[in-house]
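Z., the sequence and structure:
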Amino acid sequence: MSDSGDVVSAPPIIPEIWRPKYNPWLIGVVVAMAAFMEVLDTSIANVALPYMAGGLGSSNDESTWVLTSYLVSNAIVLPISGWLASLFGRKRFFIFCIFIFTLASVLCGSATSLSMLLLFRVIQGAGGGGLQPMAQAILADTFPPEKRGLAFALYGVTAIMAPTIGPTLGGWITDNYSWRWIFFINLPVGILAVLLVMRLVEDPPFLRRTKTAGVSVDYIGISLLTLGVGALQVVLDKGQEDDWFGSPFITRLVIVSVVCLIGLVIWEWRHKTPIIDVHLFKNFNFATANVMMFIFGVLLFGALVTMPQFLQTVLGYTAENAGLVLSGGGLVVLLEMPIVGRLAGKYPAKYIIAAGWLALAVGMYVSTVQLDTLISFRSATILRCIQSVGLGLLFVPVTMAGYIGMPAEKANSVAGIINFMRNIGSSVGTSMVTTLLARRAQVHQVVLSQHTTRFDLSLQNQAKALSTRLVHSGASVADASRRAFGLLYRAMGRQAETLAYIDIFLVLTLAGSIMFLVSFIVRRNDPKAGGVAVG
């Protein structure tokens, strides 16, 4: 009260803005390193499967479970990582995940049988499931809102670059050393990451305040999640191999997955302490961002699988040369990410997202025009660079859009669900490409074979010309005729496969075009205010 008797109002209390003790970029590099190690491991083992099968005395079909077992356990942990972080503390949970992932990697490299390797891969996938979302959540809280775009750009480099270089690195290690070293290389990286995270990373005060008191485990939710996501991942990984619904095993898994996942959503919606906060999907921007991140995963891995497979199966490239083609696209993303990070701090996310989907759709459409059996190494590299422009434009703003309107204490849950949607999209994209390639190649071969009959004059003329050349090379007349028709049949098969790859890029073009239109319904955000929507 003043001398005149008037009441003097107290100054407003401004909440203290938390800042980490250490340089945010140092923290960012450390957590991104841990995430890079995990993302790399999802693709590095692919090329080593035949070597694993031979070394462990198993068939090639059995060795594919090395991938499936990892993906299943990884997919189960991803969406509940936010709940686990609130239960144990984010820093403690992150360190635990790195430790489990690193230990399981050493055990995988030391496995003496396929059953041991599968067990350790399940443990490794479970440990790796928390690394991506926790790294993203730590970056979101460590950097101020106006620099969050740059932070997500750093994380985006790991999420996009690691799958690109994984197969090439895995092939090089396997050829020059042993398949066991693709697991052993995680040991020094994991130890260094644990020590640095213990030293540099800390939980913000609001996370320490909102840490779950006591242990309340939703056993029904965990059971539904495990059965639903596990069955879905096996379906996506084994569907084409087992002829989809022609297999009773796949059909039963689809039923289990649909029933459990629908039951999970209903149960978690009503539960007081859900392991997955499905109420977040009431936020329109969060729901839209998750749809976009799912399609982003489909297109990222769809193109990532299609391009090297075309180069190796149709054009006869080695794995190393196919990897060099992919590295051109990786370089584009690496150069693009910091620029996009800065743009995301100045312009609303929805406009960058629209530009990204448009660039991605154009890149996929150009692929349908440029792809043929005569494409050169240089042209293939340029084509991959064009495909990658949209990827670099999309990752950061789509991730930022998921945080618009979200309170800071929900960062762990947001990161877990967004990363889960991208990973499931990646599995869907890989499965879709594999299925489309097999089915469309058959269709095109049937169509092309209608023009390769004995009554087709063009075919007869080509066969005679080839026979003449083979005879001049020293072959007998009868042998030259058989070989000529064999060469023509092989050329027809290559044409059919090439047309199937073009069909895949047409589907990816359509998906990118639809997302371009959807991007305009994203709510505009104030870039300097981070997750604040402005209409």
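Residues 444-500 form one domain. The first helix runs from residue 24 to 44.

Let me know what you think.
H.
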